[in-house]
Amino acid sequence: MSREKEVVKRKRMKKSGYDYAFIVFNTIFMFLFVVITLYPVINTVAISFNDGTDAVRGGIYLWPRMFSTKNYVTVLGKQNIKTAAVITVLRTVIGSILALATNALLAFVVSRKKFLFKSGVSLFWVITMYVNGGLVPVLLLYKDLHLTNSFWVYVIPGMISAFNMLVMRTYMQGIPDSLEESAQLDGAGYFTIFWKIISPLCLPVYATVTLFVAVYQWNSWFDVMLYNRMKAEYSTLQYELVKLLSSVMQQGGNANNINTTVGSGNVTPVTVRSAATVVTMLPIICLYPFLQRYFVSGLTIGGVKE
Amino acid sequence: MSQSNDATVKSRAGFRRKKQKVEEYKVPITKAEVKKQSFLIITAAIFLVYGFVFYYLPLGGWIMAFQKYKPKTGLLHSQFVGLDKFKFLFSDKTFIRVVWNTLGMGTLNLIATFIMAIVFAILLNEVRQNVLKKPIQTISYLPHFLSWVIVTGILHDALSANGIVNDIIRFFGGTPIVFFGETKYFWPIVCFANVWKETGWNAIIYLAAITSIDPCLYEAASIDGAGRWAKIKNITLPGIRPTIMILLLMNIGNVINAGFEVQYLLGNDLIKSVSDTIDIYVLTWGISQSDFSLGTAAGIFKSVVSIVLIVVANYIAKKTGEERLF
C-alpha cells in the first residue's frame, strides 16, 4: 500500500503544466457530458410534475414550478395507456422467452464441433444479417401469414436473430468439449447435454441476449404502426407516445395555444406526454444499472480484438 | 427494418465467426452419425424452415419491382414491366433527394458518433478516480436504452420556442431560433441526437480495447517523462487502432441505413426536403400509396448499395493490409 502511495506522490510531483491543463479540460468535458446526458431526462420528469397550463410558459428546468400530479392521474387513467402497458409487458416477456429459447437451441446446434451440417447452417444464418427483403415484401408476407392485426407479429418474426445466435454460439464454443464427451459416455443425448450441461454454464450469455431482446421489444413502435395500426387493442406504450408526440408537434409547443387541453383540468399535451414518457422509461432506467456487466460482456464477446 | 440499430453489433459477431473457422474439422456423413445427431439435425431443420419463411421468402418478393404488381393478380400473374420502376426511380427528383439525404445524414452520423465514442472512451480512461469513473460510465449508457420516440420527444422539448436552448440563446442576447422550421438545422440536430444516444454505448468496445493494452507501456513512457497527452497519442491511440479500423469498416455498410426513426418523428412539411430518407420514401410510396412495386424497387436499391459499400470497404481493408470482415 505504502509503495503505491509513494508512486502516486511521485506522479503528482512530476505533473507538468500540460498535465494540469489536461486534467482541467477533462474535468470540464466530463462535467458537460454528464449534464447534457442527464438534463433532458430530469427536465422531462420536472415538466411531468408541473401544472399543464403553467408549463406552457416554459422556464421549467430541474424542478416543477407549480407542482401537480394531475398529468399522471390523466395518463394512468386513460384506457388506451393501460391496454398499451399490458401489451408492452406481454410482448417484452413473451418475446424475450421465445427469443432466448430458440436462439439458445440453435446456437447449441451450430456450436457442436461434430455437427455434420455446421458450416452450411451457419452460413444460412449469417446471410440473413446482410440481406433482407425490405419493407414491402415483408409486409405482404406477414399479411399472407395472417400475422398482421395480431399480437404475434411482435414476437414471431424477429424471434431468431443471427446476431444474438452468434453471440451465444461464440460463448458456447468456449466451453470445453470434454464435458460433452463425458456426458455422451454416460449415455446422455444431445438434448440432455443442452439442458443439463451447456445451459447452466451459459447463464451469463443468456442474460445478455435476453437483455438485448427485452430492450428491443420494450422500445419498438414501428411494427405497431405498420402491422397493427387499425388494432387499438394491440397498441404499445411507445406507439401511444408517438401519437402524443405528434399531437404536441401539431400544437407547435408555443404559448399561443394555451387553451389546447386534453381531457379535463390543467393538463396540456406537453405535460401529459412528459408523464407518459416518464412512465415508459422508468422501468428501464431502474433496471439497466444492475445489468451493466451483462451487456458489457455481450458486446465484448461480439467482437473486441485481443 | 426490425433491429436496424443493432446492425453495427451484428456484424461484430459475424466477424468473430470468421476468425474461428480455422480450427474446424470435418466428420464424415455416415448413417450411424446421422442417427446419433438426429436431434441436432431435426432442430436445425425446423429453424431452417423458420429462417426460410421469414428471411428468404421476402427476397422472392423482389420480383414485384419488375412487375406492375397488383394484389388482385398476385406475384404470378402480374404484368412484367422490366426495369420501368427503376427508370422511374432514377428520374424522380424526390428519390434522388432522399438518397442524398440518407447518404448525407448517414455519413455525418457515422463520423460524429465515431469520433465522439473514441474521444469519450479515451478521456474516461484518463479519469483516475473510480468513484467518478463508474457513475459517469453508467450515466453514459442511459440514452442508449431510451427509445427514439423518447429521445426525439426530449429533443423537441429542448429545442422548442420555450426550450432550454432558446432560453440560453436569449440569455446571451440572441434571437430565438425556430429549429424545426428551417432546413439548415435538421442534419445537425439528427447528428446530435445520434451522438447523444450512442456515445456511451459505442465507447464500451473502445474501453475494453484500452484495458487490454499492456500497462508496462504506460509505465515505461512515464519513466521516459511522457505526459498524459503524449501517452494518449503514442500508446492508447495506436493500441486501439485495429478496433477502430474494424468498427469503421463494419459501419460503412450502415451509412445507407442511418436514418428512419428520428427523421420520421421529427420531420415536418417545412423541412421535408432535407429530412426524408429512403425508408420514408418506401413508406410513403410503398405502404401509404400502395405502389408495392415502386416501394420494393427502392428497397432493392438500398440493399444493393449497402452490399456494395460493405464489399468496397472490405476491398480497401484488404489493400491497406488491415483486418477484413470476410
Give a written overview of the molecule.
The complex is a heterodimer of chains A (306) and B (326). Chain A has 15 helices and no strands. Chain A has helices at residues 2-14, 17-48, 52-55, 70-77, 79-111, 118-130, 135-144, 162-173, 177-185, 190-201, 203-219, 222-227, 237-251, 269-287, 292-303. Chain A starts with a helix and ends with a helix. Mean pLDDT of chain A is 86; it is low at 253-264. The longest helix of chain B has 34 residues, at 93-126. At the A-B interface, helix 2, helix 5, helix 6, helix 7 and helix 8 of A face helix 1, helix 3, helix 6, helix 7 and helix 8 of B.
CATH topology of chain A: MetI-like fold
Order of helices and strands of chain B: HHHEHEHHHHHHHHHHHH
Would you identify the regions of chain B where 5 or more consecutive residues have pLDDT less than 50?
Answer: 1-22
Question: Which residues of chain A form runs of ≥5 with pLDDT under 50?
Answer: 253-264
CATH superfamily of chain A, please?
MetI-like
Label the structural class of chain A.
mainly alpha
Q: Helical element count of chain A? A: 15
Mean pLDDT of chain B: 86
Shape of chain A: globular
CATH architecture of the largest domain in chain B: Orthogonal Bundle
CATH class of the largest domain in chain B: Mainly Alpha
Q: Give me the CATH fold name of the largest domain in chain B.
A: MetI-like fold
Assembly state of the chains shown: heterodimer
Provide tags for this entry.
heterodimer; A: mainly alpha; MetI-like fold; B: 326 residues; mainly alpha; 2 domains; two-stranded antiparallel ribbon; 1% strand; globular
Summary, kept brief:
The complex is a heterodimer of chains A (306) and B (326). With 306 residues, chain A is mostly helical.
